[in-house]
Amino acid sequence: xxxNKIKAALLLSLTAFLCSCGQENVNAVTFRTVKTEGISAxxxxxxxxxxxxxxxxxxxxxxxxxxxxSKTKHYETTIPETLIGGTEATTVSAxxxxxTTTAAPVITAAETxxxxxxxxxxxxxxxxxxxxxxxxxxxxxxxxxxxxxxxxPCWGTYxxxxxxxxxxxxxxxxxxxxxxxxxxxxTSSEFYVPEGFDNFTSSQWNKxxxxxxxxxxxxxxxxxxxLAAHTDEEIYSRTDHxxxxxxxxYAAQAFAVEAGVNFPYIEAYKKVTRGGFVGSMYMYxxxxxxxxxxxxxxxxxxxxxxxxxxxxxxxxxxxxxEGELITSPDAGAYYCSFLxxxxxxxxxxxxxxxxxxxxxxxxxxxxAVVPFLTSSFEKIYVCDIRYFYxxxxxxxxxxxxTDLLFSVCTFTPAGTNGNYLQKILNY
Length: 427
Fold this sequence. Notes:
alpha/beta, 8-stranded mixed β-sheet, 12 helices, 24% helix
């Protein structure tokens, strides 16, 4: 028992470090033991109080269901016919973006406030099995549609979300001529935690929408709705804490709407499938259920992959060398098949001629989006906020950025990894 407690503490510490998720103050929850197959398991017996609202003051209660009365129209995630279907990029200048996209208007402080929320989108129905446990690592193992999932809770704080929004707003204030976009992607626990475990994790929708409401002159990309409509597809990994490339496709599609750029159908990509994938969640749980239920990893190679020119640099934008965007075209490296590593800056010349240069600041979740944008921008710079050692505003100016995208999962702005954004502002 003592060894199990030590193991659980170490795994939770490792999880917190990798996911940078500062845990909220959680109300006491009563659990009842259920029968398991050699794993300690508990089911919450009292869900009367939501842990997600415990920390809010009276003026901050934007999270309650009574407060969902937004006048803001939900962002359209369907690509206009004029922007999709081809492998040849159309020329779309920043000046004509408003005429060629269904993007929502730029949000200003006068149009919205942190007290306004948007209606939460419906989630595609998925099947759930009878096996749902929380093991010694603090992670959940659930049976969904005949397969086992390992799910990681996501907490964080609203004050950290506000700090993230303030940093994004600072980028826009210092780059007034650059189109700035914010895209926060929910992790799998937002959609796949079964009923009856409401206190296992907090609402990522509430955090994401809180950030949206705090943005000023920044376009918010509603990746949440784009993913919620496809939860019955393989958009998240069952055995890893990352999403799958198909999830990156739907998020990239939502971004393309906001940016007003050409975006090919998924059929235009070469799909490569590699089986036998068991990811990081097995390392955390050491569960035989996860290990013995591997999954397939689908990699999507861009239609213009042969035309791409990719250079990699260190975090100081030095010591460049030629490489491939798809480092493992047979999907043998799984999630590392594209870009290869996080501690580098990637410079991608696509062959597209539309005069638009995109800078992406991200963590590992942002990697999956990049291959789906190579038909949309002339040049793309991909930078990880954790391994970037330059002044980020000056970098954007030096490379001639016309568009700037912040692409991260909820763990980052709601947790301490979001502090990196302020750091790269002040280098």
